[in-house]
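PT: before anyone asks, these are the final sequences, not the draft ones from last week. 360 residues across everything. Please model them as a single complex and drop the result in this thread when it's through.
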Amino acid sequence: MSDSEDPSVGPRVYRVPDGDDRERATCPECGFIAYENPRIVVGVVARADDERILLCRRAIPPRIGYWTLPAGYMELNETAEAGACREAYEEARANLKLTGLLAVYSLARIHQVQLIYRAVLTDPHVEAGPESQEVGLFHYSELPWDELAFPTVKWALQHDHQAHMEGHGQAFANPTTEED
Amino acid sequence: MSDSEDPSVGPRVYRVPDGDDRERATCPECGFIAYENPRIVVGVVARADDERILLCRRAIPPRIGYWTLPAGYMELNETAEAGACREAYEEARANLKLTGLLAVYSLARIHQVQLIYRAVLTDPHVEAGPESQEVGLFHYSELPWDELAFPTVKWALQHDHQAHMEGHGQAFANPTTEED
Ligand SMILES: [Zn+2]
Ligand SMILES: [Zn+2]
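LR: through. Structure below.
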């Protein structure tokens, strides 16, 4: 349902499939069962050499004109880390090096899990991609708190600041010798 | 496609939808477009008071008879943390308290991202749920390394051991005052 552009086609009738324990969206025309699961958003708090933080002003709904972190849906056939780097390039033409996982936020009501990484820009040049009106680099004290697009952007900026000030351990990722 | 029990129905023809930049599975009968994204597996390395680690011997394919950590697909309308606790109860009747995120593993080829938490058992009683043949508690030195179900189980056990020995920071989660 949430994946379809058109609510009048595709899986839209909820019933419990044989052998399952909860209702799933089923297509009454073709019988296809959609096992809907939360979707992963990958994003990044990227800092320049002078510690300014990269934000993008949204050119697309929702929240057009508000500032956000580079982030978007993780695609098939990429790692979470590769997805975060891809989004940073698509939205801000940013080239960066990830330095660890900052946070995992569960947004149960909107069926999202956000994986937010920390990063440093490897090239100071950034510019707006097609989904951004403009990009900006902000010192923490100058962040546009009143014009942030989503609560999770605020959470991530505050957590990144806390991590930056206190030092910060991080979750493990795939062992590099045994990558998928 | 990967979500359907029956490959002859539902989204199975790949084409690039209008306004998109990559091929998506589309149903030729009803026109439904499946935006397939990686699925999230939530799991847990849980330790008892005596530091033994909880494993389950699988009663279902794949890898029947091999040992695994409590883990499974995250469902809609739950947080990652709630999903990890749910799986521990379903597979091992375990009650536990999460102590932080251990690792994020991207398994790009099989379209999974695994979120593995650390936990302590709050009740020493555990027993096999319907998807487990038996459950066991093992000291690290006694783990059944040759009978583990999946590489990620080995990764998580090794990372948990490393975290246990060295101390270990962890990723942030939703601020508790602003949970979704
Ligand atoms: Zn259909
Ligand atoms: Zn169809």
